[in-house]
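Re-run with default settings, no changes from the original entry. Doing this only to confirm the output is reproducible before filing.
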Amino acid sequence: MGYILRVDLTRGKTITDDYSDSLKTMFIGGRGFAAKILWDYLPIGIDPLSSENKLVIAGGPLTGLPIPSSGKIVLASKSPLTYGYGDGNIGGLAAVYMRKAGYDVVLIEGRAEKLSILVIDNHKVEIQVREDLRGLSTSETEAELIKEYGRDTGVLSIGVAGENLVRYANVISQSGRAGGRTGIGAVMGSKNLKAIVFKGERDIPVANLRNLEKLAYESYHTIINLPNYSFWIRQGTMSTVEWSQENAVLPCMNFREGVFEYAENIGGYMMERMKIGRRGCPYCNAKCGNIVEDNYGFQSELDYENVAMLGANIGLYDLRKIAALTRFADEAGVDTISLGNILGFAFEASEKKLISERYEWGVFDDALALAEDIVNRRGIGDLLADGVCKASSKISGSAEWAMHVKGLEISGYNCHSAPGMALAYGTSPIGAHHKDAWIISWEVKNDRLGYTAAKVDKLIEFQRIRGGIFESLTVCRLPWVELGFELKWYIDFFEAATGLKLSLDEFFKVADRIYTLIRAFWIRERCEWSPLLDYPPARWFKDPPTKGPFKGKTLDLDGYRWMLHLYYDKRGWSNIGIPRRSTMVELGLSSEASVISKIVSIEN
């Protein structure tokens, strides 16, 4: 669309800017735009919950086009959880209508005096005071706004977790689409921004409409005829419960174990028997959201991550009760992964009598009561609302089993015996998240326990594809990951949409530029950089599981260190993980190199 909408909530002003061709060609869109805009616009060293922080909402050149899985946007900011770069993508109508309103990026600055919403209706932009929405759940907020603005509307909203500045509060859309587990919901809350409404009627211009329509027709038919399509429609990501159990990577009891004795009670086949519907993002014909009724009779959306983290990781094995915790998290606007992680941490702290509160593994009422305390910042919930890293610094003796990297809670894979996936968590650009490089499936098939150059090469390849190409285009990776929908489709989509023909190697160079810029952002914001920030938790090195096929196994510290240093070298970074000046110059990041060279020693 060619435009960035800048919104100053403090002054109640908005302005529309165009942006340079170099931004498009060097960063493509989505995460690439977000990282570069935050680097350029964000004052160095600010408090992430201050009015000085920026919130970037960025689409890519494929966002909102009528092609498979294109209903995605990236939400990014300086993370209040990690104090580094934070982002997450979210699917929904907001992605489509933001571009149809005429914008590729919305940059939100400042802080509203009272609780407000931002309404973007084509080129009419309005900031409205809406104190009446305070305390409403995300679904209540969205329902009210759709009632006011019509069904052809995209809404992003926060719940009470965002209002209360829970540092892993996220953003919700369409009663279960969630994004921004790095605390983007808390950033919205800190800006007194309850919701964003998008409406748009413009056509999204493309370079070759006839070719795009042909590709769209062929690709939709290709997807539904892929071998795994029918099973995917039945279970979506939920089949990963059984897979993780079989391969001993299912997180159990705060990642102490990799197998769960009640796994079959919470897996894909159990979900199938309960399933009453599916949800998904616009333009998707492989919808992944499985709808079940929870133990209160309400509809809840299940996928692997929330079941692993709010189920096995806290010892809970009733899928309807797990669904209730998931629905609670979505309504409150708090990340299910981090919530399940912090609940497991608190249950273990209680078990070890490091806190006075008493919680029992697998007790639903304990989990729900503590979750309510967290989102409302009551009692010990106030401490836990700041994340497992900060909580462990206040609870003596808990640091070695605080399951995070760089402050972001680990998602649903136990890596006692998965060194490649441990490295993926360690080097993820936002902290411990699987999105950038789900290498564990490849690792299980090829070399489960090895510490090899092949794993490092495959990790970088996956980061370039998953965290680079998909996050900048911006489209969903699941058809490629789960169904075998070939990567070439997306390269062809890009050419039809933009008129630019890039090779895979050229896309990879853009991805490398984005990853190196994000690493520079971390160094700029954290100042005292250490390679220890790229290490997974001590538990995986020191505290072996007591059951399953890998009983007694842990990560090897020397092996991990060797792979990490090789990763740095292949990325063109120094042996402590700082991008070399020559690498940054080659990637077109000379000015950024000059900035970080004033903070840390940078090798040539």
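The chain has three domains: 3-199, 235-402, 408-484+503-604. The longest strand covers residues 72-78.
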